[in-house]
């Protein structure tokens, strides 16, 4: 089974060393920074994470199966990890995963492993009672790592809170209709909050080349990096 790039991708330099990115699949990725290993929404066979080391921090955005898989968590060595999650995930996840856990609501901040973690709203527009991702149910995250700000969107649309983000150095932004947003809305939102660098992820079936074109037409100062998050045979 294909896995993440063996050497990783040097995604961003910080005051405390580079952030190295290991895209895994769809919404799942790993970052290494300053001696710490961070897993984001780990899902799928444990073989995908071979060679990446045990996580120190696991960020879970919400409870949908392409972001949370208890079989994956069972198979990974999370024994020393801090698990960060919204309340809706904590309500359905037993205490066997991770060493400790922190439940975060939108707007909360924690300090851990030499970084700050802010929980951001992630939700569908328009807001309706039957939304797949109602406001407050899940979290996006903004990490401050070595003086650099990293935004992880989770499953969202181009909300006011996303558009109001400032000084984002590295962003991971979702797009896949009908679950989150389309390429046009994602590009419009990204051009507005203007991260220095953005990776489209969670984009199954979407035209990310068009996303790059639209972003750079609207804001040529944003660097759009494309990576094949579906390179695995079981994509």
Secondary structure layout plus pairing:
Blueprint lengths: L8 E4 L6 E7 L2 E6 L2 E5 L16 E3 L10 H6 L6 E4 L1 H4 L9 E4 L5 E4 L2 E7 L17 E7 L2 E5 L7 H4 L6 E5 L8 H11 L3 E5 L6 H11 L4 E2 L11
Parallel strand pairs: 4-5, 5-6, 6-7, 11-12, 12-13, 13-14
Antiparallel strand pairs: 1-2, 2-3, 3-4, 8-9, 9-10, 10-11
Helix pairs in contact: 4-5
Question: Can you summarize this structure?
Answer:
The protein is an alpha/beta fold. The protein has 5 helices and 14 strands.
Give a verbal description of the structure:
With 235 residues, this protein is of the alpha/beta class. The chain contains five helices and 14 strands. It has helices at 70-75, 87-90, 160-163, 183-193, 208-218, and strands spanning 9-12, 19-25, 28-33, 36-40, 57-59, 82-85, 100-103, 109-112, 115-121, 139-145, 148-152, 170-174, 197-201, 223-224. The strands form two sheets. The chain has a seven-stranded mixed sheet. The chain has a seven-stranded mixed sheet with strand order 8-9-10-11-12-13-14. Strand 11 (148-152), helix 3 and strand 12 (170-174) form a beta-alpha-beta unit. The longest helix has 11 residues, at 183-193. The protein is globular. The termini are close together. The mean pLDDT is 95.
